[in-house]
Amino acid sequence: MAYTLTRADDAAAQQSDRYPLGERQRVDDPMKQQVHRSVFTGKLEEVLNSAVNWGRKNSLWPYNFGLSCCYVEMTTAFTAPHDISRFGAEVIRASPRQADFMVVAGTCFVKMAPVIQQLYDQMLEPKWVISMGSCANSGGMYDIYSVVQGVDKFLPVDVYVPGCPPRPEAFLQGLQLLQDSIQEERRPLSWVVGDQGVYRAEMPSQREKHRDQRIQATELRTPDSV
Amino acid sequence: MSTDATAAIVHTLRERFGDKLYCEQPTLTGMPVLWVRREAIVEVLADLRRLSEPFEMLYDLTAVDERMRSHRDGLPAADFSVVYQLLSVSGNRDIMLKVALDERDLSLPTVISVYPNANWYEREVWDMFGIDFAGHPNLRRILMPPTWNGHPLRKDHHARATEFDPYTLTVEGQDKEQDALRFVPEDWGMQRERDGAEFMFLNLGPNHPSAHGAFRVVLQLDGEEVIDCVPDIGYHHRGAEKMGERQSWHSFIPYTDRIDYTGGVMNNLPYVLAVEKLAGIQVTDRAATVRVMMAELFRITSHLLFLGTYLQDLGAMSPVFFTFTDRQKAYHVIEAITGFRMHPAWFRIGGLMQDLPQGWDRIMQEFVNWMPARLKEYERTMMENSLVRDRTRHIAAFDTQNAFDWGITGPNLRATGCDFDLRKKRPYSGYENFDFEVPLGSNGDAFDRGQLRIEEMRQSLRIIQQCIDHMPAGDFKADHPLTTPPPRERMLEHIETLITHFLQVSWGPVLPANESLQMVEATKGINSYYLTSDGSTMSYRTRIRTPSFPNLQQIPALMRGGFVPDLVAHLGSIDFVMADVDR
Ligand code: SF4
């Protein structure tokens, strides 16, 4: 599996640097190199890593942050019929400092962008971003002077959920995809031991993964009856 | 609306002001439209406010860039025009005044002294068009960021983001923008201290759990007491009005859904009704009834969302789980009928997107049967709860006069005891055929605003029940050449019909040059679309007047001297969404 290595060094950022900060590069599985060094510590690290990741992915605390219509569908996912606590992500935090991930649910406005960046900066590592809805993904139907054409113009996005708005179920699927990717992540286990970079797995494209099955559909349900 | 009385008012105005009035413009807005000289505007407005049945409310204030407009026969020369729309609740009538301005002298006097709510509207006109209002206490940008260059609704301002370099944010730019958003009390004429004790300035928002979206209000606090506050909006400005100038009449419909985004097809209604006025289309009874039914269903889902979040803001965590369960049931019906949940964009110019599916009445009936017991439970457990009562009774209360001064409409106006509901006063889309009551409050406080909406849901259920019982048969689309998309059966007659069909589908219908306006009683108050057609496939100017905007402007007037928890209770009781404020 290929990984993206990020070395965050915000403190050294220049005034003219663009967000997202930090240097990124594609690398091979970091575990592989270590296994060659010593089989025993390699195995140990792998076990430790997956145990920590398992813990992280099953207790994701979302940041209570909403921009527009998509946020309504996001909150719908938090309530009884969809019940996000089945995935361990029901502990909404009103402070970015206590949250693990931020869902950019809605349109990213030019006036709001610096505020979003500020809130993101206030979140502590490890942190993740889900971009929910066409507006956050690409500007959506708002190719207009006051809208940033996608939140990834300045934030690093982990999962994109399509839809305008996406159904709550789609948001929940996005959450599960984030969990899958967290399971594959490699982060430093300590601030003194080993490599300090963050390795994110490059997850397979869902569109390609499901294409064969999707094009099998030949009959769509008629809208003429309920 | 008695037209005789309205004509009499215009007549008296003419006598009083003589040549200070230029002319009366014939339109399809359903109200007199008078062009007034700039020098006289304050006087004329003050006069209209003093009538025996006065125009109590400045309903809307906006502007039009007239420079590219081609069909202006008989109108005074103007590069820009400023539009004042007044509403008389006592006389149930409207009037529109326009002032012509020359490009080289874009200035006119402020009318805040006559109508206090002109304040934000004038700031908006300044922000969007660069028109100056002499004497305005704080004429600064309201929707766009303070660092913005240009005035977006001018015809020479670009519309698309992609006409520009892609957005980037640098470390330096971030610091600059954050600095520009910093609140400086002196800019708003505020003191930093009193008797040697410093005030605390607290930013509530732009992201705060009780701010209901991207909204910021800066509080000047002495302990828990709110000395003053400054609401700051524009974090949710999506340029919907500019969008109207570049989408065809038909393809703008989905944008209307996203104005009051909890209102779904309720938003389509004023827009398609205004377009139908321009096109001269009369829809079928079936289409009108289905529209009413779906709009009322969305009123219920919107009020349910309100109820859940209102109680949550008061600290009750569980009701939101119950109301969202109800919403899920409503969405089951909405999805079966329209194929979508929040933004169905289901109404069409001349009718609906498709007919009701078979079996709609059964699931709709299930929903109507489900709700009453729930509403009763909410009333019993929450509205009779002493904590809820203590937090909301006599909190942020205002009277009818205050509501008029600030342009408040809808449930928040009716909570003050004022019986003004457009569905009764000016029935549209066949509301005159339904049997329902208009619930009223008496204290105009945060409690009444909550209680009233529960009652409104009951009335909406009544309307839906009547739709189920008496749904008229017939076509779901009008038989008219401008109905969009045009009927397919007509397409295949010969080459002419094929070409016409092709043009109408690809470019959209061409509507005759004129102006029209339609108000509806939307979920949060009166929502209207004021459309100017220049005889083309697109709107020349689309003005969207939304009910949430005035509510936010009113906040400081209510909260001075209140406490922070009262502000939170008030914000919960207003029922606003930011898209309905900033558009
Ligand atoms: S993607 Fe659609 S639903 Fe979501 S915020 Fe944008 S317009 Fe609203």
What keyword list fits this structure?
heterodimer, A: 226 residues, alpha/beta, 3-stranded antiparallel sheet, 3-stranded parallel sheet, 7 helices, B: 583 residues, alpha+beta, 5-stranded mixed sheet, 40% helix, binds iron/sulfur cluster
Q: What is the overall number of helices of chain A?
A: 7
Distance between the termini of chain B: 29 Å
Q: How many helices of chain B in DSSP terms?
A: 20
Overall mean confidence score, pLDDT of chain B: 89
Low-confidence stretches of chain A: none
Element pattern of chain A in H and E: EEHHHEHEHEHEH
- As a whole number of angstroms, the C-alpha radius of gyration of chain A is 19 Å
Q: Give the percentage of residues in beta strands of chain A.
A: 5-15%
Low-pLDDT residue intervals, each spanning 5 or more residues of chain B: none
Kindly, what is the distance between the CA atoms of the first and last residues of chain A, rounded to a whole number of angstroms? 45 Å
Oligomer status? heterodimer
Radius of gyration of chain B (CA) equals: 24 Å
How many E strands of chain A? Answer: 6
Could you report the average pLDDT of chain A, rounded to the nearest whole number? 85
* Overall helicity of chain B: 25-40%
Structural class of chain B: alpha+beta
Helix content of chain A: 25-40%
Q: Profile the largest sheet of chain B.
A: 5 strands, mixed
> Widest sheet of chain B: strand order?
1-2-5-4-3
Principal-axes shape call of chain A: globular
Biggest interface, chains and residue tallies: A-B, 53 and 66 residues
